[in-house]
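re: ur question from earlier - yeah i can do the single chain one, its not a big deal. heres the input i used so u can compare w yours
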Amino acid sequence: QVQLVESGGGLVQAGGSLRLSCAASGRTFRGYVLGWFRQPPGKEREFVSGISSSGIIEYTESVKGRFTISRDNGKNTVYLQMNRLKSEDTAVYYCATQFGTTLSNEPELWGQGTQVTVSS
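and the output i got, formated as tokens:
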């Protein structure tokens, strides 16, 4: 069964840090981009960051300089280190994947989501 399983969400104070992990399993992910979307309360889901199997990285503007994405191809795992968190980062964070180097708005596979809550 091909699946993405996220972990690492939680409650943190503004200015703090969290690290999300997403373990991909069920097939090889060589040639697939892995990344993150988020859905804030009452808003639509939005792209956060993606990393291809060759290391091409993209971030949405609002997280540049605060979030760092990385990937362990041997473990088929993608990480999102989130620093200097703000209340507007509060959202359900979803891992996603598709073939290629960038994530579209309709990835092939989604994780179940993990809640990140930043208190001000």
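The longest strand covers residues 91-99. not sure if urs matches, ping me
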